[in-house]
Write a structure and sequence with these properties.
This protein has 304 residues and is α/β, with parallel strands linked by helices. The chain folds into two domains: 9-123 and 272-302, Medium-chain alcohol dehydrogenases, catalytic domain (Quinone Oxidoreductase, Chain A, domain 1, Alpha-Beta Complex); 126-247, NAD(P)-binding Rossmann-like Domain (Rossmann fold). The chain is built from nine helices and twelve strands. Strands 1, 2, 3, 4, 5, 11 and 12 form a seven-stranded mixed β-sheet that branches. Strand 7 (169-174), helix 5 (179-184) and strand 8 (189-192) form a beta-alpha-beta unit. The longest helix is centred in the middle third of the chain and has 14 residues, at 124-137.
């Protein structure tokens, strides 16, 4: 599935493209499943090169995948052909809504053994974002108080579980229908943002992890104790507020983080949620479903 012009997901078409060839340090992955990330259509790498010039069409979306190694590029000796892997590929390259994609060895890891390819495919972006926000950037420690905005979302549900695993006291915001779901993930306290202003019941927080942005982020600053941190994935890096620019993070592909996440999944510490599964040819329908929201986890595309 690919785009022939700069447009929304409704313009995705099905067709044949040349099979990509792995460069040095890359592998060719036979894609078994990938995930739908609607915001990708607003990312600059989707339609621009690193230089800022327009990327050539056709453009293939989705940069997280689960599959098997089909072939090795030059210089790759530590991965076996046929190995089951999951991970990310270059934001500026064609993605995984295809039978094959190429990926750097530094951006993939052995697939979690306890879940199928569909479940593994929805993990990389969301779980890496939560890991890097809480653990890498946030330095979350046992006993600290963390407030997670959007606890039932694709990133938020991993954040709640990872914060719980870290031994923190976890508070999360969620809508009324998702309160019990977020509690089941390990949150000590869940605030219904539809009925309660979180700033009225929270203070002295060590870390705020924000996946919502806007007014939610603005109302969070006064809640952080001296020396505490705010991490957000929901603003643009050119945001006018310097605090927001400093708090903003972009997820990065990291095979060591992916390997640790896979271990936690296999240990039963992290649960993985697939909202709905579609075939690759149903990508347009999958994006339409994702755009309607109210999903627990992400929509996945299964590649035959």
């Amino acid at each position: 599935m690919y785009l022939n012009k700069k447009a929304g997901a409704e313009s995705l078409v099905e067709g044949q493209l040349p099979q990509p060839t792995p460069a040095r340090g890359e592998v060719l992955v036979k894609v078994h499943a990938t995930a739908v990330t609607p915001t990708e259509l607003q990312w600059s790498p989707t339609f621009q090169k690193k230089s800022g010039e327009p990327r050539p069409f056709p453009i293939v979306l989705s940069h997280e995948y689960s599959g098997t190694v089909e072939s090795l590029g030059p210089g790759v000796h530590d991965i076996e052909v046929g190995a089951a892997v999951y991970g990310l590929n270059d934001w500026f390259a064609n993605g995984a809504q295809a039978e094959f994609c190429v990926a750097s060895t530094g951006a993939l890891a052995p697939k979690p053994k306890s879940v199928d390819h569909v479940h593994a495919a929805v993990v990389p972006i969301s779980a890496l974002t939560a890991w890097q926000g809480l653990i890498t950037r946030g330095k979350l420690q046992r006993g600290q108080r963390v407030l997670i905005h959007g606890g039932s979302g694709a990133v938020g549900n991993f954040a709640v579980q990872l914060a719980r695993w870290s031994g923190a006291h976890v508070t999360a915001t969620a809508s009324t229908p998702n309160l019990d779901f977020v509690r089941s993930l390990g949150a000590d306290q869940v605030i219904d943002y539809q009925t309660t202003k979180f700033e009225h019941v929270m203070c002295d927080v060590d870390l705020v992890f924000d996946t919502v942005g806007g007014g939610t982020l603005e109302r969070s600053w006064p809640l952080v104790k001296p020396g505490g941190k705010v991490i957000t994935v929901a603003v643009q890096s050119e945001h006018a507020d310097q605090r927001a620019r400093d708090a903003f993070m972009l997820v990065e592909a990291d095979n060591s983080h992916l390997a640790e996440i896979a271990k936690l999944i296999d240990a039963g510490t992290l649960r993985v949620f697939v909202a709905e599964t579609f075939s690759l040819s149903e990508a347009v329908e999958a994006y339409a479903r994702a755009a309607r929201g109210k999903m627990r986890g992400k929509a996945a595309l299964e590649v035959a």
